[in-house]
Write a structure and sequence with these properties.
- Strands 3-4-5-7-6 form a 5-stranded antiparallel beta sheet, with helices on one face. The chain has a two-stranded antiparallel ribbon with strand order 1-2.
- With about 140 residues, it is α+β, with helices and mostly antiparallel strands.
- Strand 4 and strand 5 form a beta hairpin.
- The longest helix is centred in the last third of the chain and has 22 residues.
- It contains 2 helices and 7 strands; from the N terminus they run E-E-H-E-E-E-H-E-E.
- The chain has a single domain, classed as HIT family, subunit A.
- InterPro entries: Histidine_triad_HIT, HIT-like, HIT-like_sf.
- It holds the Pfam family HIT.
- It comes from Auraticoccus cholistanensis.
- This is HIT domain-containing protein.
C-alpha cells in the first residue's frame, strides 16, 4: 500500500489545493511523520478551509478529500487514538463529539446523508485522534 500524501503547508505558501491532487504535483510532498495534525495542520490553520475552531477542537475540509464531501474533526491536544484515550481526555473527547455532531448535522442537512468514522490501529495513518465526516462518491 502506498502511504497517503499530505499537502505540506510550507510548500503551498499558505494555500492548500482543494480536490484531488496527485503525489507528483509540485504542491505536494509525501508526509513521512506519524502525526500530521500536530506536525502540519494545527501549526498552520490559516492554510486550511476551517469550518470550526475553538480552544479544544479544529474541523476543516480534508486537504486530500477521498469523498465528494470530506471533513476532518481533530482535538487540538494530542490524543493518539480513540482506543488509547483515558479519563484525563474526557473534556477534549466531549468537545470533539459536540463538534463532530454539529459538522455531521450540517453535512446531513445539506446533502441528505453523512458518515462519521475514525480509523484505529494499522488503519490509522496519522497517530492523532481524528474523525472523518463525509458523504458522496469516492473520488
Amino acid at each position: 500500500m502506498v502511504p497517503p500524501c499530505h499537502v505540506a503547508a510550507a510548500t503551498c505558501h499558505g494555500v492548500l489545493p482543494r480536490g484531488p491532487v496527485g503525489c507528483d504535483d509540485e504542491r505536494v510532498q509525501p508526509y513521512t511523520g506519524s502525526d500530521f495534525y500536530c506536525d502540519v495542520a494545527l501549526r498552520d490553520t490559516a492554510a486550511l478551509d476551517v469550518v470550526h475552531e475553538d480552544e479544544r477542537v479544529l474541523a476543516y475540509h480534508h486537504t486530500r478529500p477521498f469523498w465528494d464531501v470530506h471533513l476532518v474533526v481533530v482535538p487540538k491536544r494530542h490524543i493518539s487514538s480513540l482506543t488509547t484515550a483515558t479519563a484525563a481526555d474526557a473534556e477534549d473527547l466531549r468537545a470533539l463529539l459536540v463538534v463532530v455532531q454539529q459538522v455531521a448535522r450540517t453535512v446531513e442537512e445539506r446533502y441528505g446523508a453523512a458518515c462519521v468514522e475514525t480509523n484505529l490501529g494499522a488503519y490509522q495513518d496519522s497517530k492523532h485522534l481524528h474523525v472523518h465526516v463525509h458523504c458522496g462518491d469516492v473520488r
